[in-house]
Amino acid sequence: MFMIGYAGSALASCAAVCACQCCQFVTKETMRRSARLAYCVLFTLAMLLAWVLRDFAKPLLEKIPWIVRHAAGLPEELSEKWYGQQAVYRVSMGNFLFFGLLSLVLLGVKFKSDKRDQYLQHGGWIVKVGLWIGFNIIAFLAPVSLINAYSWLARAGSGVFLVVQMIILLDLMQSWNDSWVEKDDERYLYGLLALTMGGYIGALTLSGVLYWLFTPAGADSCGFNITIITLTLLLCLSFSLLSLHPVAKNGSLFPSAAITLYVTYLGYSALQSEPHSYECNGVGHRYTAASATTLALGMLLTLLSVVYSALRAGSNTRTFLTSSNSGTPTARDVEEALLDQGTSAGLDGAPDTQTMTTGAKTERSSKAMSEFEPVTYSYSFFHLIFALASMYIAMLMTGWGTGAEERDLMDVGWTSVWVKICSQWATAALYSWTLAAPMVFPDRDFS
């Protein structure tokens, strides 16, 4: 029995070691092959840290014995920089500095043979994680005046991030529509028709729900909510009709239906951000009785949606950058790089044609071409988007700098309401401009 127990213990230990090594190998390979996923993990961890420090740091720190706080250098009266709005700003600034530095260092990377691709973007994770931790620590040592200045900078950066989200949505819907139309297959056309009808039906249904939720019975005056919902319907009707007008050469109902649904959702999101004490916020009254698990789930979904938006925007270089200034090289860039090395697909720098065989030249050209394999997206732009997303999360958690009106919630307050309403109007205006621009400037190529 003793030997069986010993053997079982040894086998269990071996299995544990193998499992640990397997996890380490999988993690390493994941980070090497999908750096974007690893950066998303860092970003998500930082935002969860900001949430914890905002809502739970003060009661936790107050329970630490005074002698421990003294040994740690913390004052008896805890400074606000360790919790609440200040803590959110500091974590946000640490991540902004981290991603901003990577954006600057990786500027101009066009080929996978660039050492920065291997050692900075896809490698060196121990150094990068240490740098990420260091920036977050340094942010907590910064003076309050610097943090307050950063909070104003974050307002501007968050606005840029919202614009990026709009452009990504518009480009996605138009590309989707063009792709299915070009297939010249009735199945795809019927698919577009079904999605278009679904978008409009969904928007109308949601509008009806908004009238029901945000004009509750017993409320004295909900004129503001009624105005916002009605104006949303009028905006959607306006650009939908414009997309059918002959002047809109690129107009189509499917993108209009998708933007209609999104604009209606922004209206819902704006009204839902009203203070929960506001009598016309029917959703807020229901949230008041919600469990802590429901609130936590809602905040996590918000964080994940921001992560997804940042990931998609950062990877979609084509929409924002032209080939001349993006990280993705053109055929001309590849040719020039090959010439710099004295080799191209059809020209070798001063070759000796008497001694070099055709096979050798082909092998050399293939090797050179593989060396100058282009990157699939702009690394610098990718990190810039995550830097802006770090600012945006800080605004969500602090009610756009006014302080969250409900500590356990995110993105609540009248400032958040107006930011989303302005985003709604900007989205409708931007889409309408994409329809009208070819008519206003007929000599320009808007493809």
From TrEMBL:
Cellular component, GO annotation: membrane
UniProt similarity note: Belongs to the TDE1 family.
Pfam family, one: Serinc
Transmembrane segments: 36-53, 87-109, 129-147, 159-176, 188-214, 226-247, 253-271, 292-311, 379-400
This protein's record includes keyword Signal: no
Principal location listed in the UniProt entry: membrane
Protein keywords: Membrane, Transmembrane, Transmembrane helix
PANTHER family: SERINE INCORPORATOR (PTHR10383), SERINE INCORPORATOR, ISOFORM F (PTHR10383:SF9)
Membrane topology type: Multi-pass membrane protein
Transmembrane helix found in the keyword field: yes
Gene source species: Apatococcus lobatus
Ranges for region Disordered: 343-365
Protein name: Serine incorporator
Subcellular location per the Swiss-Prot or TrEMBL entry: Membrane
